[in-house]
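I am still getting used to backbone structure tokens and would like to learn alongside you. Please make up or recall a protein chain and show it to me in full. Would you write everything just below, so we can both look at the same thing?
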Amino acid sequence: MAVPCSAIAKSGQQCSRPALAGKRHCLMHDPASVELRRDAGRKGGYARSNAARARKAIPEAMTAEEMAGWLSLVFTRVLTGQTSPKIGAACAQLARTMLVVQETALLEERLAELEERAGIRRAS
């Protein structure tokens, strides 16, 4: 059976977590584990960040049609409570930006073709 932590919690009760092997305190109360707790907190906080969750959910590259399908899924997940509205809003903004970039690239390509046909050279 595990030895209970000997620390007193903020509530005034004895901590209910088991003590680390060969120590009197659990991970949260052990004075020698400060750096370990900080590292765990940093990693945990990053994994829960909106950016990290969005990165896991977004495919590498999409066509406009694929993006429309993906946004439809995100929309449904937001409506059913499976995805945070903040994530949905961020995805919508990213999709808008990606579409603007795609449209700009297409327009530049078409302009370059027209200039080539007209014999006009663009300054690089």
Remarks:
- The two ends are 75 Å apart (CA to CA).
- The mean pLDDT is 82.
- The CA atoms of residues 95 and 101 lie 10 Å apart.
- The chain has two domains: 17-48, 61-118.
